[in-house]
Amino acid sequence: MGFVTKQHLEDALTKQVFSKLNRILFISILLLIAGCTTYQPYHYSISLIDPNVEDLTYEDGDVFFQFIPAAEHIWVSVYNMSEDSIYFVRDKAEYIDPNGESHNILFGQMFANAMKDFVRSNLYSSEIRIDPKSEREGNIWINIWPGPGGDIGAGSQITVTDTAIDYLDHYMLPEYEYQGNGMMLKDTTFSIILPIEFSGYVKNYEFTFMITDVEIIDRK
Q: How far apart are CA 157 and CA 20, in angstroms?
């Protein structure tokens, strides 16, 4: 059996550091290339069709929901109209994309922070308590852990910076042409399922949205 020398350990550590630096450099170059092109962002017009309402809000006497969908995430406000505490069961929530594929979600204001909270909680999103006559609001993001090719981390460890996490493709819909053909998504639908726990039972609130129009914004 051979001995592992100090030089061997230093060489291995150096290779790991350069591998991570190369990955971050590659992501930065892609962003620089994208920024130098003439890509213009898509603008999506989105309606809530099930339940069929006009103002992206819904209430049933127990809970009031309000939504602002965007390419990157869906902002949602959940207001507890009841007299008892309720819980938003994040770990069972889903996003179903226009292709019918289901995704786990994260919930929070910033994607990188929501991802780190998920990892630090042993890859679990705990329930969010909402007291009577109060609300919780935040953004629903796609949970892409551990990232394409394990770019975010492995096991239960974050291995890159917040900036590198934000650079990864985690959009619900293409924001720019290089992320996909957003124009083809007109008249397609996507859904979210938000489980709310009441006293003794869980109700799955499912909302289906339709992309009624897609435009390319000219920022010139």
A: 14
